[in-house]
Design brief:
Order of helices and strands: HEEEEEEEEEEEHEEEEEEHHHEE
Strand content: over 45%
Shape: globular
Radius of gyration: 20 Å
C-alpha cells in the first residue's frame, strides 16, 4: 500500500509535466456528420451481482442498455453509445449501478464534442467512494469511437484511507522534488522550482485478488501548477505549467513480500486544460517526442494519443520508473528511439 501511495503523487507529477500550449477556443473542426460516440465498460468489484440501468436519455442516437447485469468481480461487455449528431443540443444520460443487497449509485453523463461537453457528475446521495468514473478520449474526430467510458463500482473501503495517506505524504514528496534538476541530455535541463497549490484526490480505490497477490484499481484527479526553469541548447527560460481536471485510471498488480512491488497493467487519462507559458518546453517536446507536436494545442487529443497509439509506451515508461525508484536508481526516460537517464 505504501508503494501505491508513493506512486500516485509520482503519476501526478509526471502528468503535470506533459506540455501543451494554451487551448485555442477558436480552433475550427470539420463536422463529422454524426454524433459523438463512446464505448461503455462497467467493472463490478463487488462479491455480489451488479445491476446497471440506463435512464433519462436525452438526444441520444444510441442509448445505453435499459438494463444489464455484471457478475461478481467481473467486467461487462462493451456497449456502444452515440449522441445525436444532428440536433443542436447537449446529449446526456444517467447510469445507475446497484449491487445486490446494496445501495444504488447514480452517474449523470453528458456526451458531445465542442461546443457541447463530455463530462459527468455524481448524485449527491451516492454512498461515499463506491463508484469511480473516467471518460477517456479515444479516437477524437477520427474513424471509430470518440471516448471510452469506464464505470467502476465497488465497496470503496480503501478510498478514504488512500486519500488520507495522500494528504499526509504529498507535502513531503513535493518538498523532495522542489529544487531538483533533471538532466535529460547535454542540451536539456529541467529544474523544478515549485509546485503551487497541488490538489490530488483519490476518487476511487479498490483492492482485489490478483495473480501476484493484489489487484489495485484506482482513479485520481489532479490540479496544480509546476514552476520550472528550462535550459535548452544554452537558452534559459522560466516556465509555468497549469493543469486542470487531470484524471487517471490505473490498474496494477501488487506482489506482497518484504515490500510491495507494483506492475501497472492499465493507464488511461483525461484532462480539461493544460496552460503553459513560454515556448522552450514545447520545443523540447517537439524534438524528443515529435508524434505529440501536432496535437499540443488540443489537450483532449493529446489524451487520446496517450490512451491509444502511445499507450503501451506510456505504461512501459511508468513501470520502468517504478522499478528504478524501487531499486534506488534514477528513472530512465525513453523518448522515441533514444534512452536518456534522468538524474536528480
Amino acid at each position: 500500500m505504501q508503494s501505491l501511495i508513493r506512486v500516485l503523487p509520482l503519476l501526478a507529477a509526471v502528468n503535470a509535466l506533459v506540455p501543451a500550449p494554451r487551448p485555442n477556443a477558436a480552433v475550427d473542426v470539420e463536422p463529422r456528420g454524426l454524433g459523438t460516440s463512446a464505448e461503455i465498460y462497467v467493472y463490478n468489484h463487488w462479491s455480489q451481482q451488479l445491476t446497471v440501468t440506463g435512464t433519462d436519455n436525452q438526444h441520444m442516437n444510441v442509448s445505453p442498455p435499459a438494463t444489464f447485469k455484471v457478475g461478481p468481480n467481473a467486467v461487462s461487455q462493451k456497449y456502444a453509445i452515440e449522441a445525436n449528431g444532428w440536433v443542436p443540443v447537449q446529449s446526456s444520460f444517467k447510469l445507475n449501478l446497484k449491487p445486490e443487497g446494496g445501495s444504488q449509485s447514480t452517474v449523470n453523463v453528458d456526451i458531445g464534442v465542442a461546443p457541447w461537453r463530455t463530462g459527468f457528475s455524481l448524485n449527491s446521495k451516492n454512498p461515499a467512494g463506491q463508484v469511480g468514473v473516467l471518460l477517456a478520449p479515444a479516437k477524437i474526430l477520427e474513424a471509430g469511437r470518440d471516448f471510452d467510458f469506464y464505470f467502476l463500482s465497488g465497496p470503496g473501503s480503501f478510498t478514504s484511507f488512500v486519500q488520507g495517506q495522500i494528504d499526509q505524504k504529498l507535502p513531503e514528496t513535493l518538498a523532495k522534488v522542489k529544487g531538483k534538476k533533471f538532466v535529460v541530455n547535454s542540451d536539456i535541463e529541467i529544474t523544478v522550482n515549485d509546485i503551487v497549490k497541488p490538489v490530488v484526490k483519490a476518487t476511487y480505490v479498490n483492492l482485489g485478488n490478483g495473480p501476484n497477490g493484489l489487484l489495485v484499481d484506482a482513479i485520481a484527479n489532479v490540479d496544480g501548477e509546476a514552476q520550472l526553469t528550462i535550459t535548452f541548447k544554452g537558452v534559459i527560460q522560466k516556465t509555468n505549467i497549469k493543469v486542470k481536471g487531470l484524471s487517471a485510471l490505473v490498474t496494477a498488480d501488487a506482489k506482497l513480500g518484504a515490500s510491495i512491488d507494483l506492475f501497472v497493467k492499465r493507464f488511461q487519462a483525461s484532462v480539461d486544460s493544460i496552460d503553459i507559458s513560454g515556448d522552450i518546453l514545447v520545443d523540447i517536446i517537439g524534438v524528443l517526442y515529435p508524434v505529440l507536436a501536432p496535437v499540443l494545442k488540443l489537450p483532449y487529443k493529446l489524451a487520446s494519443i496517450v490512451n491509444t497509439s502511445e499507450n503501451a509506451k506510456v505504461v512501459s515508461y511508468i513501470n520502468t520508473a517504478i522499478k528504478a525508484i524501487a531499486n534506488g536508481d534514477s528513472p530512465i526516460i525513453k523518448l522515441g528511439q533514444d534512452a536518456r537517464r534522468v538524474v536528480a
